[in-house]
Amino acid sequence: MYQATTDKQLIKNIPDGGILTPKGFQCGGVHAGLRYTKLDLGMIVSEELASCAAVYTTSHFQAAPLVVTQESIAKEQLLQAIVVNSACANACTGEQGYQDALKMRSLAAEKIGVPEHHVAVASTGVIGEFMQMEKIQNGIGKLSVGKAIEDAKDFQTAILTTDTVMKSCCYSAEIDGVTVSMGGAAKGSGMIHPNMATMLGFLTTDAKVSSEHLTAALKEVTNTTFNQITVDGDTSTNDMVLVMANGTAGNQPLDPTHPDWTVFMELLKESCASLAKQIAKDGEGATKLIEISVAGAMSDEEARMIGKQIAGSNLVKTAVYGADANWGRIIGAIGQSPSSINPKTVDIYLGEMAMLKGSTPVDFDEDEAREYLLNDKVEIFVDLHLGDGKGMAWGCDLSYDYVKINASYRT
């Protein structure tokens, strides 16, 4: 619904790329025994000390790995590695959980020969269970990292929980006459309703940019990407997105005064948006990605609020699952939003098909609408006709399988 910006047109998608495409990174994954057979422990290593930035869940119950990662970054604002496990969230585990996260950090640091505070820690899995530290120690001991495609796949597999697919992306752009790349890997399928971050997302880039400016950039981009997805309305205790920038591309240091700063921001935005949409599409039990575009709001923030209200509505989600073109579910979701609304000026489109114009019903072909809703991506467009604000949000349909998956999550 929106025209691409000049900067966006400068961004190149690399379909077969990923977290190892940027220069100077290695990764890997191993089966430590936290899960029955699947890989469950992974690591990303930068060959050079890297600038870094992270955003975290705003849950009052931040998991121990997030606390330790924040302590690591606070020391120098620099990182060289991220160690991640699945199967156990190490959340709500008290002092023992904190000590286990510290131990996990120290083991990883010793493995690659760097100071402990140059290592970040992340965990995902069941809340309230203690880490099996003997298995973690043995797993880190046999973990190896490399630059091959299989190494990237091993890492991406090791971080998954109820995900059905790996999630990755890679984009590049020319900055200062050199190619700068950004790769990403993420996990997330359930307990998805981010507030400052989402699930686990890791981004690598060979751009040269300070941690200060990278942090500001990530926070800004998160608000329009990761924070605009929802699967089930629940924010996790372990949500984190972390970026490492090792500067090996050879560009001049990036900051908001750099002529290519907006290109870098678009590179970061495209990467985050890609991972966010992949997470939404792979929602637990989901069969369809729902993309909401809102225009004509009083501000971009209000447009994003309305978009996420629609994407998070269980009635909208179940209607999409059932291929029922009941636009009343959409108007009901809009009506709940605290954003400014004129109940006489709202337009709603399902794909290219008008449902409502000026808050007045429009005749449409029910069979055509049903056929459209059977696609694996459903687009909903809303125009409020109040201002220039616009925004997007992403979600998924709600199927019977969501209940099945979560009714037996621990078994």
Description:
Strand 11 and strand 12 form a beta hairpin. The chain starts with 5 loop residues before the first helix and ends with a helix. Strands 1, 2, 3, 4, 5, 6, 7, 8 and 9 form a nine-stranded mixed β-sheet that branches. A six-stranded mixed β-sheet has the order 13-12-11-14-10-15. It folds into two domains: 267 residues, L-amino peptidase D-ALA esterase/amidase, CATH 3.60.70.12; 119 residues, ArgJ beta chain, C-terminal domain (Ubiquitin-like (UB roll), Roll), CATH 3.10.20. The N terminus is likely disordered. The radius of gyration is 21 Å and the shape is globular. The protein is α+β, with helices and mostly antiparallel strands and 411 residues long.
What is the first-to-last residue Cα distance? 43 Å
Beta-strand percentage?
Answer: 25-35%
In CATH, the topology of the largest domain is named L-amino peptidase D-ALA esterase/amidase
Give the CATH superfamily of the largest domain: L-amino peptidase D-ALA esterase/amidase
The count of helical stretches stands at 12
Strand runs, count = 15
Shape: globular
Going by CATH, the architecture of the largest domain would be 4-Layer Sandwich
- Provide the gyration radius in Å: 21 Å
Keywords: Acyltransferase, Amino-acid biosynthesis, Arginine biosynthesis, Autocatalytic cleavage, Cytoplasm, Multifunctional enzyme, Transferase
Function: Catalyzes two activities which are involved in the cyclic version of arginine biosynthesis: the synthesis of N-acetylglutamate from glutamate and acetyl-CoA as the acetyl donor, and of ornithine by transacetylation between N(2)-acetylornithine and glutamate.
Pathway: Amino-acid biosynthesis; L-arginine biosynthesis; L-ornithine and N-acetyl-L-glutamate from L-glutamate and N(2)-acetyl-L-ornithine (cyclic): step 1/1; Amino-acid biosynthesis; L-arginine biosynthesis; N(2)-acetyl-L-ornithine from L-glutamate: step 1/4
GO molecular function, one term: L-glutamate N-acetyltransferase activity, acting on acetyl-L-ornithine as donor
